[in-house]
Amino acid sequence: MRSLYQALIDFISELILRKSHFDELVSAICIPAPIDHSTNKITQNYLWNKVPEYIKPNSIVVAETGTSEFGAAVGAAIADRSRQLFLFVGNGSFQLTFQEISEFLHHGLTPVIFLLNNDGYLIAKLIHGPERDYNNYQMWQYSKTLDFFGAHRERNTSTGCSKVGFESKISTRQEFEAAMDSITAQPDKMHFVEVVMPRFDAPRELELLVATSENC
């Protein structure tokens, strides 16, 4: 019986320790980190601090959690065309479901799509090792996606295909802000922004989550 009591005590002590790690994680996430001005690159810290400045109230935001984001975004855009839709997708997930871009164009939808290009499966790199080859894949010319799906072909533009606004690759903060100014001025068009980010730069929240899971 004494061994059972000791086992329960050890188990409860471990739960308390894990809860303390969780509390530290939540507290850290609740306090946004200020923008780091030591670089001109588009870092996670910069991006998620700046993006809210350009998203108007009542907009729809779809942030990918795997490969379901395009279906969710297409459905939301069709359901309420009066609201601007912002879609954020990593390049890994994009390579699995990119064909749905054609659906946006075909239905004349006007989303703002941010392709976050950090050259690989960043989450997997953080968890399983940054140099594992299976966390890398073929680099595509993402910024030419709309052209690939016929966005500029007369056959499509004459039958209700989405009009295209901004479509390019950006890698500096000045380019990001210029792109967002252009997008804001063209709410009736579809936009595709390839955002080149540092290869191993991760959101602070993700880094904290990985660190906490390692300590548990």
UniProtKB/TrEMBL annotation:
Cellular-component GO terms for this entry: cytosol; nucleus
Organism this protein belongs to: Parasitella parasitica
GO BP annotations listed: aromatic amino acid family catabolic process to alcohol via Ehrlich pathway
Thiamine pyrophosphate enzyme TPP-binding domain residues: 49-184
Keywords: Decarboxylase, Lyase, Magnesium, Metal-binding, Thiamine pyrophosphate
Keyword Metal-binding (UniProt): yes
Organismal lineage: Eukaryota, Fungi, Fungi incertae sedis, Mucoromycota, Mucoromycotina
Source organism, top-level taxon: Eukaryota
Keyword Magnesium attributed: yes
Essential cofactor(s): thiamine diphosphate
Descriptive protein name: Thiamine pyrophosphate enzyme TPP-binding domain-containing protein
UniProt record similarity statement: Belongs to the TPP enzyme family.
Any one Gene Ontology molecular-function term assigned to this protein's record: thiamine pyrophosphate binding
Database matches in InterPro entries: PDC/IPDC-like, THDP-binding, TPP_enzyme_TPP-bd, TPP_PDC_IPDC
CDD domains with a match to the protein in the record: TPP_PDC_IPDC
